[in-house]
Amino acid sequence: MSQHTYPTSAPPSHSSDSSKLRLSQLSSQLSPMASTHFDADVVPHAPEDPLFGLMAAYRNDTFDKKVDLGIGAYRDNNAKPWVLPVVKKADEALRTDPDFNHEYLPIAGLANFTNASQKLVLGADSPAIREKRVCTVQTVSGTGAVHLGALFLSKFYAGRTAYFSDPTWVNHHQIFTNVHIPIATYPYFSAQTKGLDFEGMLDTIGKAAEGSIILLHSCAHNPTGVDPTQEQWKEISRVMKEKKLFPFFDSAYQGFASGDLNKDAWAIRYFIEQGFELCIAQSYSKNLGLYGERAGNFHFVTGASSDAESTISRIASQLAIIQRSEISNPPAYGARVASAILNDQALFAQWEEDLRTMSGRIIEMRNHLRSKLEEMGTPGTWNHITDQIGMFSYTGLTEKQVLKIRGEAHVYMTKNGRISMAGLNTKNIDYFAEAVDKVVRET
């Protein structure tokens, strides 16, 4: 076998100089650019989401009595996530179903789920369903439903301003802004009464341009826990009808607020009864505890007319096109769990009982907190704690007081004084009340 030998010394100097020149030229061609198209002026650093930052701070706190009142998720009396018993039953049935698979759902979602969801929010005897003027697209929970609706309106209802309550769920602003819909607010929470600023709300809505989009929380307003009464809803409907405004309902807490699925859907059904064309974002995160499964729907209800079926068919076709370009197919597992519960009489009854358990525990915490604060003579009035409803309560605490409680008592809540009532339990509620009492007296 022949052997190859390789030189161990450099070639002549003139060849070396030539090679160095070529390497230098090549290096300059391959060197990274000195700048980027995406510098800080173009892509500034986004601020941290305040709620997720609060959650991180809580997790990193090693204090043994720390209390998390920030996250909007149900917790049991041991401060643990609660898987609804009915969800466990549906989950077990799915896992043992020999026909279960992980195939794609249709673009519009699981039909058994979307059809049953229409009946849940609109009522089984809804004339809109009977007259076939409703279309539903399964979405990535409530966030996806709000986004799909906003994107549809930005394309086919352009030029209108969307009005949100002040305050509202912070993501409403981001979603509508991202699809280039102008936004404005209407007064909602009264700092003086810690209730609804009804006159301010009606006045602003009444001055909105014809055709404006009015986003409404159907129940358990997030973040205040303040809902209009049925009489107030009727007046809101009257003003909106006169001004020909477009209602966009966000329904994230049906059944979770009062424990009664029908009662919590009253406002939506009343508006449809009044002849409104409207849309609804529906979530099953809270009322079924399917937070991570992202089960939700977007419903569009058109007005009663001779060509309503044709109208809703066209709207459904465009929603499907948008959905295709956004996510193609919605997630299946949560929809299958929800569908099993919605379409089985025994499971549905069990769900209603589970809803009463969750809403009932939160009502107990509201009553206990108010009683404890009043028993201690904490300065101020505290009836708003029990007047409000649902997962959240606007305590009336200032940002300064909130930060002081966090620093001294390791109680975590958002800076605006909103607390998740589900974070309170029989083990920490007195500790929290005492921390509130101390900071209110000091400040």
Automatic annotation (TrEMBL):
GO terms for molecular function: L-aspartate:2-oxoglutarate aminotransferase activity; pyridoxal phosphate binding. GO terms for cellular component: cytosol. Residues 65-436 form the Aminotransferase class I/classII large domain. SUPFAM superfamilies: PLP-dependent transferases (SSF53383). Pfam families: Aminotran_1_2. It catalyses: L-aspartate + 2-oxoglutarate = oxaloacetate + L-glutamate. One of its GO terms (biological process) is aspartate biosynthetic process. The keyword Transferase applies. Its cofactor is pyridoxal 5'-phosphate. InterPro entries: Aminotransferase_I/II_large, Asp_trans, NHTrfase_class1_PyrdxlP-BS, PyrdxlP-dep_Trfase, PyrdxlP-dep_Trfase_major, PyrdxlP-dep_Trfase_small. Residues 7-26 have a biased composition (Low complexity). Its EC number is 2.6.1.1. Residues 1-26 are annotated as: Disordered. Keywords: Aminotransferase, Pyridoxal phosphate, Transferase. Belongs to the class-I pyridoxal-phosphate-dependent aminotransferase family. In eukaryotes there are cytoplasmic, mitochondrial and chloroplastic isozymes. PANTHER family: ASPARTATE AMINOTRANSFERASE (PTHR11879), GLUTAMATE OXALOACETATE TRANSAMINASE 1, ISOFORM B (PTHR11879:SF55). Homodimer. This is Aspartate aminotransferase.
